[in-house]
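Justification of resources, computational component.

The compute hours requested in this renewal are based largely on the per-chain cost of generating structure records like the one below. Each record pairs the submitted sequence with a full structure-token output. That output is archived, and it is also reused by downstream analysis tasks.
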Amino acid sequence: MLTTWLSFKCLLICLNLLLQRRDPLTLVQRYKSSSVIPVYLLYFILRSSFDLNGALAISTFNDWGEFQQVKFFQTQEIYASVDGSLLVKPMDDVEFHAISDLIVKFVNVSDTNYVRKIPDVADKTTILSFARMAASAYVRDPTAENWIDIGGNWNRSKGIGWDSDGIRGHIFVEPMRAAAVIALKGTTTLISSEDSDTYERDRINDNLLFSCCCGRSNVLQDPVCDCYESTYTCSQSCLENELASEDKYYRSALAIYHYVLSLYPEASIWVTGHSLAASLGSLIAQSTGRAAVTFCAPGEKLAASRLHLPSKFHPNSGDYIWHFGNTADPIFMGTCNGPLSPCYLAGYSMETQCHSGRECIYDTVHDKDYSMSLIYHQIESFIDIIEEYDSVAPCFESVNCLDCYLWDYE
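The structure output for this chain reads:
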């Protein structure tokens, strides 16, 4: 009798949602004080939350793209919602990926009607446009002398984050609004830009994303987290929580994505960036299934695994992520580490080399007789490299790549 009553009540709620076109979030909030949301209602919420772009939206965002947290169960709290997966903050030792497993159980991904549109990565003009967007993401003012003209039909829509000390960039939109590109700023050092106020947060995120364990190997700087347990042993759950915490860039990057999605719901949304931003772009892509064209990215595959990416709904990152780099760039190639390296001396622990998706590598050491140098990590230098070659570098998925193999993660 009770089951029949609950089923009837859930049916009324679902009909009410359809008639009033209410946000499924309203229903989640209604039940947030309960220990369990009725299974039928949960199933309907998850099914109804997919839009035609494949976006799954349970959390909401304010006008600045910041997350509005929603308690889903007493023991689990959603802190980010992305296309096809939800990341949860573990509470009371709850499994980190429990919500995603629940979604896979109830939702058939073939029902989302999601069709991914990707840029033409074999076209030199297209790659140059993305590279120029990545370069311009470092510049606050589009009228400044160091702003690089994108070319083509791309228009700058608006800036992102320039009034804060964190993640920044610009949004570029095609005139018909068929595509929008999120271009994020990479690492700013104390000497690389007049806008150096993001230096400390950039460095913290670099050392968290690209080190084996909190940047601990670099004795010139304090570790950026407390996940170290003993010699070559680091806490996996601690690293996962640190990467997904509110004050780190991954979560901010997801908020920016959802903000842009709200501005251009019908557009194909792509991501680009250089260096740190290149890796963040890849993480956004693996969370949402959107395309990412990046430049000079440090190895981000280890960070992706700690965030349980790619999403189960977008598992084949080689279909939508392209990392462009060159063999004379020590950060892209994963060799800028060790006590005598310039990265180490500057306070950075760049210990990873493996990339998700595909690597598109210009062999400048062999073809141009370049020597490995941080000069060739600069986005301006890389734009020159793209222009010097007649065609775009071929792209391949990396195989047999392993980061931090000396470490145990428990």
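The radius of gyration is 22 Å. Residues 2-112 form one domain.
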